[in-house]
Amino acid sequence: MSKAASNKIALIGGGGVRTPLVIFGIQESAQALHADELVLFDPDAERVRIMADLGRGIVAREGGSLRIRIAASAEDAIAGAGFVLSSLRVGGIASRAQDERIALAHGYPGQETTGPGGFAMGLRTVNASIGYARLMEKHSPDGWLINFTNPAGMITQAISHHTGVKVVGICDTPIELFHRIATALQAPPERVRCDYMGLNHLGWVHRIRLDGKDVLQDLLGDNRALGELYPGNLFDPDLLRSLQMLPTEYLYFYYCRRRALANQRAAGTTRGEEVARLNERLLAELAGYLQSGQIKEAIAAYTAYLNQRSGSYMKLEASAGSAFDEKVDPEQDPFRTATGYHRIALDVMNALIGATPRRIVVNVPNRGAITDIGDEDIVEVPCTISDNSIQPEACGALPEAARGLVLSVKAYERAVIQAALSGSALTARKAMLLYPPIGEWEPSETLLEDILKDSSTRQNFGHP
Questions:
Q1: What CATH code is carried by the domain that includes residue 147?
Q2: Is residue 253 part of a domain?
Q3: pLDDT at 329 over 70
Q4: pLDDT at 6 over 70
Q5: pLDDT-derived band of residue 355, with 50, 70 and 90 as boundaries?
Q6: Average pLDDT in the 194-204 region?
Q7: Where does substrate bind (predicted)?
Q8: Alpha carbon distance 272, 216 (integer Å)
Q9: From the annotation, which residues make up the binding site for Mn(2+)?
Q10: Which of 163, 192, 284, 390 sits 20 to 30 Å CA-CA off 464?
């Protein structure tokens, strides 16, 4: 989106529970973004209506003028949009919960973007994401596609390789770790520079500079500071010292698989199942409040939901905790946090239409940023973003402790995309064989059979 581009922004997947956060962020930056209309599309008409009504209430509370409209079709939403945000959840939260339960039944941790759950999510999401991107090629060829859809790196790669749209994948995980590092160092974020590289949900901070001085070793030597870096007690400090890097929290499902599995079994549930319960309760509350015109109460219920969900993040996997524990520690205002789902999107969009370069970690074609990876493969690295341009930062070679894992996961991502497009069970099983969290041939047959019992996965497997 350039300064002269459309004043319309589209959100595909507008029935998602984080849509009101996005609405708040776009409203807050509407003038900078030259945006006067946000158009929502979602196949679930009732959910998108609830989110649109709540979003209008948030805009009114903020004294804004952003128009929120529900699109009649995906084409209607996309046509002429300067930015198209993609936040798909094919199959809904029910498919996520089922994926995670299948993973547990087969002896793997249940998680939506890694392990068998991530494989299943990719398998059913690739074709749908490419389909929307092809609509964008036709109806908004000059716009930017901002991909939230998980697994974000894999989906961004599928769109980048199989369409001609300008696409960037975003995730708030790296910036959240950067902010936690700054907090642990007791320094404002602008004084701390983190060097980072990897793939989405598979990245590491490998250098930290405070006012230009490398302080990684100081941080690695401070158990108190290390304890502040992650939600829950995820990583043994000696594990971090052995790596000489700080991984994002998703590496827990690679480095600590047995502990994650044991905690999920002890809890008797999965995060997906708990989120499904939270969502069901939220939607019932919102429907009641909005129907009776109680906008203030609806916003309060949504705020409480965000706090409960974010406050319990990773507690189940790390310590068999629950989102329904009374000791969840909420944030003060989830709308105005410095990081989060909506902040990274707004940062990227504002940078793309601005003349002042910004350094932001996003998912883009490698273009030589990581020397071990092909130029067209999607990587997650710091980029300089400004004036309709995204330039990845030169990161060099992958550290020895990360190289094998990153290359294996990238090969796995390519194979999942190929399997999803072709509908080949053999290629799908090959993907699981290449993938370190699974990494065996024999279990892949029954695992794939169970994954394809989900109707949305089966319908999207090999069916563009």
A1: 3.40.50.720
A2: no
A3: no
A4: no
A5: confident
A6: 98
A7: 96, 150
A8: 34
A9: 171, 201
A10: 390
C-alpha closest to that of 422 among 451, 386, 390, 463: 463
Query: Same domain, yes or no, for 12 and 160?
Result: yes
User: Which DSSP state fits 211?
Assistant: T
310 and 163 in a common domain: no
**Considering the domain boundaries, does residue 198 fall inside one?**
no
In the chain, what is the straight-line distance between the N-terminal and C-terminal CA atoms, in Å? 28
254 is catalytic: no
Residue type, position 386, single letter: S
Q: Which residues are annotated as a binding site for substrate?
A: 96, 150
- The pLDDT, as a whole number, for residue 341 is 77
**Residue 356: its pLDDT value, please?**
87
| Residue whose pair of structure tokens reads 């997650």 in the numeric block | 380
Q: How many structural domains are present in the chain?
A: 2
Active-site pick, 108, 196, 250, 341: 250
Structure tokens at 298: 């609806």
Q: Is 250 a catalytic residue?
A: yes
Are both 156 and 264 inside the same structural domain?
no
How far is the CA of 448 from the CAs of 98, 117, 424, in angstroms?
Answer: 13, 11, 11
Range of the domain at 269: 259-335
The three state secondary structure string of 256-322 is CHHHHHHHHHHHCCCHHHHHHHHHHHHHHHHHHHHHCCCHHHHHHHHHHHHHHHHHCCCHHHHHCCC
Point out the catalytic residue in the list 42, 99, 172, 377. Answer: 172
